[in-house]
Design a protein that fits this description.
Layout: H1 14-17, H2 24-27, H3 48-57, E1 62-63, H4 73-82, E2 87-92, E3 101-106, H5 111-122
Antiparallel strand pairs: 1-3, 2-3
């Protein structure tokens, strides 16, 4: 019978640890115009994604302990981010929870969000 290999703690490489700031301001080079952002994709009406996005667009902060439609709020926010609706996440303490929970706000300054809102409300192609 073979013995199991001893447990080794996995360490992240330097590449994994690096956090890159790719804001539009930092990516801008003088004299070079950035291409217009692709608009965020609107979720299907009547879905949990659509419900969450409506709350986020209204300026609400979504938290798992107050979002009663589902217990999978993090999955919904992740899916919205994949469609171009990124959220700003902060960890907050909550009564009845030993550990902090995530609170989500829509990153209204994101280029994809701005383009989607402009096309939706004004009808201007970006």
């Amino acid at each position: 019978m073979k013995k199991n290999a001893p447990f080794q703690e996995k360490k992240q490489s330097a590449v994994t640890k690096a956090k890159f700031n790719t804001s539009r301001e930092q990516m801008h080079l003088p004299g070079i115009e950035l291409p217009p952002a692709s608009p965020a994709i609107w979720p299907t009406p009547g879905t949990l994604e659509n419900l969450a996005l409506r709350h986020l667009l209204a300026g609400d902060e979504l938290r798992q302990d107050s979002f009663e439609a589902t217990w999978r709020l993090a999955a919904i926010v992740h899916s919205l981010a994949g469609k171009g609706w990124p959220c700003i996440v902060r960890m907050v303490s909550s009564q009845g929870h030993a550990r902090p929970i995530a609170a989500y706000r829509l990153d209204i300054e994101a280029p994809a969000v701005q383009t989607a809102l402009r096309r939706h409300w004004v009808g201007v192609a970006a």
